[in-house]
Amino acid sequence: MNIRKHIWITLLVPILTSCIQDWAINYDNSPQGNFELLWKTIDENYCFFDEKGIDWNAVKKEYESLVSEKTSDEELFQICSSMLSKLKDGHVNLYSDFNTFRYWDWFLDYPQNFNQSLVERNYLGKDYIIAGRLKAKRIKNIGYCRYESFTNEITSANIHYAIKQMGNINGLIIDIRDNGGGSLSLVNEFASCFFSKRTLTGHVKYKEGPGHNDFSDFFPQYIDPDSSLAFSGKIVILTNRMVYSAANDFVSVMKTLPNVTVIGDATGGGGGVPFSSELFNGWKLRVSRDPFFNTKKESIENGIAPDIHIDMNAREEQQGVDTMIEYAINYLTIN
Question: Which of 43, 69, 37, 40 is nearest to 55 (CA)?
Fold first, then answer.
């Protein structure tokens, strides 16, 4: 069994059921009860308390006095959202019928470093290749592939066909800027096209108990190669801060290859597999539970630094030039 493909199967149902049963003894569907269940569920499942230096007990003291039996649903949602923001985690969400908590500072505090319209008009143009959900075009003897989301189904055949149609290229650009993640299975599918042998690409730990440090040992993660290499030459991956979650993992996996260079801004992170549960009032909670690590057993939660950092140049962007694509083309041409 490929552990990466079956990462979600971590016995979550018994843990969630036990959690709700324990708390249902002392709390009902009241503002205080829902607040306590939210805090406790995160306390027992969130995986980055120590890494981020978060004192979750102190956070509780800060917010629990704001909740009373008279607290409205809207007020409770705002209090809970403020508390959740302390985690600084884009994988943490609270869903109600009237609002959704999300933490987006992991990319809003940074330059965009991507202009979709510019890429579509000035680089892909009218005659680009569409293989499944992969967009591709030969630009100055360099292959350019644009993949927008790991929620978009893609097959190894799509990748092989796209690269084959670009002909004899001197290098390959994989542009995943603004790719917010999706399926880890699609990460495997895409990355496997560039590996010639089974390769260790990282590790994962599983949350095994309610304590902040109740984790399993490191479980190695491997990529198995596709039947044939889609491309064996120099590869550049273009990144920005909106590369998150599964896309972040893709960058970590691809960096294990000696022929890959990551160019752009650091990725946004998102190195924890989300766990989902529900409060008494029906609100849904999502929280990072099982952390991913690179081959050196270093966390990838806070993003992955590029090998070469470069930002979009505002003046060039106004002139219709993508600084990062042009740099990548030049880099692959002379290296």
Answer: 43
